[in-house]
Structure formats: C-alpha cells, structure tokens
Design a protein that fits this description.
The chain is an alpha+beta fold. The protein contains eleven helices and 15 strands. Helix 1 crosses helix 3.
Amino acid sequence: MNQRSHQFRFYPTAAQAKTLGQCFGAARWVWNTALAWRSAAYKIDGERVTGVDFSRELTWLKTLEPYAWLRDVPATVFAQTLRDQDRAFANFFAKRARYPRFKKRRAAASIRYQIDQRSVMNVYRAGELLKLPGLGALDIRWSRVPGGAPKMVTVRVDACGRWFVSFMVEEHIEPLPASTSGVGVDLGVNDIVVTSDGRKSGNPRHLKRYRRRLKLAQRRLSRKRKGSNRWRKQVKRVARIHARVADTRSDHQHKLTTGLIREHGVIALEDLNVRGMTASAKGTAEAPGKKVAQKAGLNRSILDAGFGEIRRQLEYKAQFYGRTIVLADRFAPTSKTCSECGAYQADMPLKVRVWTCPDCGAVNDRDSNAARNILAMAAGGRPVDVHGGRRTPSATTNSGCGMLAPVEMRTNPECVGASHGR
Ligand SMILES: [Zn+2]
C-alpha cells in the first residue's frame, strides 16, 4: 500500500463559502491567541504549555457569552490548528524552524478536518461524496477516483479565490512492468530536463509570456493606492497570473516526471541539495552553488524550487511504480568532463553549448553530455531508497521486486544501454 495525495477543486455554495470564511477566521484567532498565551507563559513564568493545555482553556472560553461564536466552528478545526502549532514549536525547539509567527488575514487560507473513521462511510464515497462537519456535502470535481478513504481533509482557498480539498489515502498502486533502461538527467534552464539519451524537454513557452504579463500587472499594482478598490482588484489580477504560472509549471513537471518514470527503470540525478543552493545564493558560494548560480541567472529561486519539486516527484513516483532513483555526486564537474573519454576541460564558458573534445574528438552537447556523466557517475553514487530511508550502495542488492539495482549498473554499465545512443 502507498500513501497517495489527492487534490480536487470544489465549488462551495454561498453559505458554505461564508461558513468556511468564519472557520478560517476562528482558526486564525485560535492560532494567534494560543501563540500569545504560550509565549507569555514561557517568558513570564518559564513554563512550557501545549496545544492540549490551550484546548482546555478553549473549552472554558466557549462557555462565555462573548466567545459564543467559537461554538459554531467544528472542534476538529481547532484541534488541528493547535496540533499544527505544537508541530511548529517542536520544529523550533529542534532548531529546524524559526519561532512560530502570528497569522495575518490573507486571501489564501486553509483549515483541516479530521475524519472520524468509525462513521467515514457516512461522509465519504470515493469519487462521489465528501461531507464535512458544519458544511455538508461539497460539490467536488473528482478528476480521478481515490483508492481509499481519507483520515484528514484539508480545505483551502488560494489567492485568486479557487477552492480545493486535499487528502492522503492508503492506496494500492500497480507497479509498472520492470524496465532495465537507465537514464541520466541534467536539470537546467533552457531545458528543464535533458536526458543522457539526448532528449530535451524544453521549457514551457507560455511561462515566458506569463512572466511578462506578471511584470506588467505588478507595475500597475505599484501605481495604485494601497487599500483602494482598484488596488484590490489589481491584487486579484496579479494573484490569478501567479496561479496560472504555477499551474502551467506544475503540469509540465508532472508530465516530465511521469514520462521518465514510465520509460526507465533507473533514473540518475545530480544530487543538488536544494537548501544548500539557496544558502550559496546568499554569498557562501561553493562549487555546486556556483554552478547553479550560473545556470539560473535571474530566476534562481524559482528554479531551485523547480529542481526540488522534480526530484520530489521522481522519488514518490519511483516508489509508486517500483523504479530506482540514484543520486550522483553533486561536486563532480559533469558539464566540463567529456562523457566519451573522461577528459576534463578546465576552460568551458557557459555559453559554449556544443564542444569538441580535444582528447578524443567527440562532439558533446553541453547538457546531454552532463546527463551522460551523471548516469555514469550514478553507478558509484548513492541510491535513494524510495521504500524509506537511505541505503548505501554496498548494501544495495537486487531487492527481488524487479528493480535494477545500482550495484549491477556499476559492474556492467553497458546493460542499462542509454548512454551511447548518439
Ligand atoms: Zn573526449
């Protein structure tokens, strides 16, 4: 069984939209009040209080007339809000995150509902029905039928007013037929993905057009008086373009990753540490950061996020469909090494797209040459154990589920047969 997440658009009735708006507001109030209370308890009394402590206070508050409106919101919404805050504090104490912050009123918001598993059959039928406490049935556009029932449902509205439900279900996913094909993947700017067999994905063309429109819309926004009606309208317009850009990019990424997973048993990626890349962008430049900085230019942050997302998709899809992801050393000079003879070219300006190797005469396309090196290196790289945790290459053997193990690639790189197809 796999954990698979689903997201569907839905269209609330006017009454549902109003109720949800109240729930968002109440959840935000609970978050902020609990946060203030916890901060005060800690600063003044040196005490650590938790969400459970606050929910006791909340039960008491609900009995008071000025807080009667708290009774209109399903208890599960507050319980989840407080649980989220507990997690935010846990992350803070573990030094993984900054101190939790107050939530401001924003156009985009979300809340979560726990679904009582004893009565789930009354409120959920996959592809047909989802009823939430206080809202009733939602008018959901089921773009596919989930293979299980959710334990938790998130309802959110984005900045341009579109509504979504999302949830995870335990689902059986049929693995794809085993494939012995291996491919190296280089992530870049002009082409989001270039593979070792010389295929280039391109970059969705409309993104450029949207980017221009976005710039224009933002310039118009900056000329309007903040808080005015025209300003508010323009904010919505900007949000809509943002959403369209995000959707287009996401579509394209999913198509790319699904295609790679379908065709190949083993996919080798450069181990670009996404967090490291952002750090190096701020000036603590190391070799990989420098490479990425060169690659990315102006839209670096967008690109960083894109790389991380493509890798995330490849990893979970590999898990779904029984594929193997292998990471190659990110410090290796993949674009400056000839994939034919292994000679290193110290002087290789970024603008050089195609080069002839002075040592062996091979004509190398910059990107697919890098992808071929990544595939070759992946033989000695770290395989990502998509079934949980990380394995070292030496511990990796063919696990018997039809996957081509990286160890075999190392002993016989020829058998993956994707790197010499020029
Ligand atoms: Zn060469």
